Fold these 2 entries.
Entry 1:
Amino acid sequence: MKTQVGIVGAGPAGLTLANWLRKQGISSVIIEHRSREYSESRVRAGLLEQNTVDILNNLGLADRLKKEGKEHHGVHLSFDGERIRVPFGELTNGRNITIYGQQEVAKDLTDAWLAGGGQLFFEATATKIADFDTDHPSIHFEYEGEAAVLECDFVAACDGFHGLGRKTMPKGSYNEFTVTYPFSWLGILANVAPSSDELIYAYHERGFALSSSRSEKVSRLYVQCENDDTVANWSDERIWDELSIRLATPGWELKRGPIFEKSITPMRSYFIDNMQCGRLFLAGDAAHIVPPTGGKGLNLAVADVKHLVDGLTEFYKKGSTAALDSYSETALKRIWRAQDFSNFMTTLFHKQDEHGSFGYQLQKAKFDYIKRSKSYATTIAENYVGLPFEAFE
Ligand code: PHB
């Protein structure tokens, strides 16, 4: 089997890449370890930056997103029960975010790829990425009990944090950076209308809470919990009680409803400072993880893909490797920015230090400053909606 770009992983990065390359007249094949059902049902975050929505729209892949996603023009920040709103429009020249589940994005991209005759092998396990230091790399994989080989010009490893891509990069070709936070998130989906039109991020002495949504009828909420916590420790009643306390502000009430999904997510910052080696390129979670507090994960993956498509297009149309050669350098500028912002939001809203301690006072001082300073609020708004690509040129 032969193609121009061999893609490992059918998450948002791999699927966006395949659909986008097709538009540029470049062929690709995707190899995905999981089943289609698993890939499309895994509950993940759901915050799309303006850049991401624009890209999907320009690719003609945003029909359902436009109908079912919800555009937000601001975000609520709450500290010890006091709630303020950071408006996006006036602070970011009209840029916004859209709430639309990541698995919905994955469904739309998979449907579009397959409808256009794209090749995607589900339940196919990549076992080796070979010869990436030559101009004829290949992906070895197992499919339906048989060994197979995909020959290609380039390999894009969009295969997540535990994938083969990063493991294939020679030791010594990158440095890695890891921070593990001393808390996790318990996330729920519930059949109840959202209690707020826009997201609410809250610091409370009992811990962080976040109110988000998936539709007019489905709420998505999170509470800070212990790293060794289990879902079994959290009855529905305990979850709603904690959310009510942590998100409380005068004159506002949290709507409760039947919970149909509960899961715990660890909080981690991770990245490597080189995302390419020869003709192997990493994109998305394969190269970086951010804590979900800034809502940046999927957006960073799509931004990586943009740079990779730019590089591959320049190669196939003009024969130049200049943009491919600087892929890591280009992508990392945004990744560093997102790492900083995600760490900032995480530190600002989680209970990490004793309530009332020096660390707490710094958190409170930051919150007070957002209230008083348009410049500080602008910094938060422009990072939250995502900086335009031109900002990094
Ligand atoms: C979500 O809706 O799942 C969500 C929103 C914002 C975040 C994280 C998760 O920062």
Entry 2:
Amino acid sequence: MKELISIIDVPKHVGETVKIGAWVANKSGKGKIAFLQLRDGTAFFQAVAFKPNFIEKFGEEEGLEKFDIIKHLTQETSVIVTGTVKEDERSKFGYELDLTDIEVVGESNEFPITPKEHGTDFLMDNRHLWLRSSKQQAIMQVRNALTYATYEFFQQNGFIKFDSPILSGNAAENTTDLFETDYFGNPAYLSQSGQLYLEAGAMAFGRVFDFGPVFRAEKSKTRRHLTEFWMMDAEYTFFTHDESLDLQEAYIKHLIKYVLDNASYALETLERDTSLLEKYVNEPFKRVSYDDAIDLLQKHESDEDTDYEHLEHGDDFGSPHETWISNYYGVPTFIMNYPSSFKAFYMKPVPGNPERVLCADLLAPEGYGEIVGGSERETDYDVLTQKIIDFGLDPKDYDWYLDLRKYGSVPHAGFGLGLERMVTFVAGTAHIREAIPFPRMLHRIKP
Ligand code: ATP
Ligand code: MG
């Protein structure tokens, strides 16, 4: 099979005869001519079969037989096609294949997802097949590029990949969203975030990141929440919160730029406005404190085009507030220094303002919501122990975590990015369910 090429590489072979392994996505034509829309996971393009060419090449009988096979191919039949690559300005891909031979590899009968419109539930029930469509293929290519670019960025910045466990004997921070399971007669919990373990890694290795699935029993149905999603957490020592924001901004810019440079075909398929993505790469992100953001929201709440609820200092943002703020600035925006009461126990207070903590959420513009959450961590053993108690947690459960403040505690900070949130933002997808191959949500665990 080595001589097969990928559709995405077709432009390198203009004028040559090539072989491609693919599936028939669609078919059209009449009389002497047949058009096949082919896909192979890298791209979609068209192959054209002209009956007289087949007769000339294979003789009357075999030529007609081959042309007949092409005319009767059904959707998702797998084939190996041979043909000559031609430039073709009229087609979206810019190239097409002048077909000279075809071999059917696997038949396909009554593929359920036809080119007509289908409802979301139907598509979700057939997710294993829906993944073959051009839009889903493009989204997964964006996801793949983001994954690769994450490893590249942290490698370039001196981080070591440090894998946090998925099973844990205690909750990381939020006991209400925990998935519990049985661990040989004792309760165990699926990880909601690798962060606490990553802090142990940072004290051992300086700069660490993890990247893997986390689980949250989110019972609300939103366009932004999955119950299983992939999180990238980074943690680094001798780092302040401001330095952390610089690193986060560099990371997000690196991700967007990588997709622009390496997945342009996918972005084109998705009809993503790349001028906006370029703007996010080239312009500085906005940084605004939680309290200033509340003031700003209050100032604009009776504007004609706003439709969010009034907020007081101390209230949490809803998604209409997040959307409004990030659109107001038009670039990814850090909301800094939230009230300590609605953030995790391990965050360090703002010097001189114990009601606020040194943290930030990064809001994506265009309504894509929060993509990153990060903070500087409390370093003092006694303060942290008291915080754990104040949050209604048991310091005994956190003995190993508290140890990190006993033996050479240092300033450190970190952040977590939700991969699927980033995918929806960069790909321009309305709902997070399309940002992961097999989404898990309330009422959805199959396929
Ligand atoms: P939200 O307020 O949107 O629920 P969060 O404050 O719970 O987010 P963090 O605990 O800071 O989020 O998690 C870090 C990142 O993980 C978030 O910035 C977001 O990108 C992502 N994330 C959080 N919850 C989910 C979820 N249920 N599904 C997908 N991604 C998520
Ligand atoms: Mg949440």
